[in-house]
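Reopening this one. Same input as before:
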Amino acid sequence: MLRGYVGIRVSPFPMKEPYAMKKKYEAFLAGLPEEKRKKVEALVQFVKFGMVGGFNTVLSYVIVNVMFYVWGINEQIGNIVAFVITVFISYMANSRFVFSETAKDQSFLAGLVKVYISYSITGLFITSALLYAETHILDIPLYIGTFANIFITVPINFILNKFWAYRKKS
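Same output, byte for byte:
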């Protein structure tokens, strides 16, 4: 932001109306039949979840590799540190941008614990089982297996988060 001569903030990118896109999106949704509206909302929510997850995946990769290659710390220690940091960031971002309507219905700590549990299920147990099967039984290279697992674990994470960690109170 730039400051004008009387202390008024002036944006280098003027916007006629803040939240104009949000209003257009809400108007678009309001014009849809309820069934289609729910499908569009779920798709948008999944895309937002994927964006948060994509950011955290890159951040985790950077943390693990910096700790290993730059600082000489064991890769498993780096992986644990990356897991703790990125799941916390994931909880904060998903609570704010993806599941904001239901996140406010629970305490911070309860929600955070649920998210750590759900990511532990997919990140530790399911991924480990898949990688073992892929590399030891199916002879799939590790770099392919880890990439393929994203298409299995992300939807499971989304479902666990949507219907358990961020579930609406009845």
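So the earlier flakiness isn't reproducible anymore. For the record, The beta strands are 2-3, 9-10.
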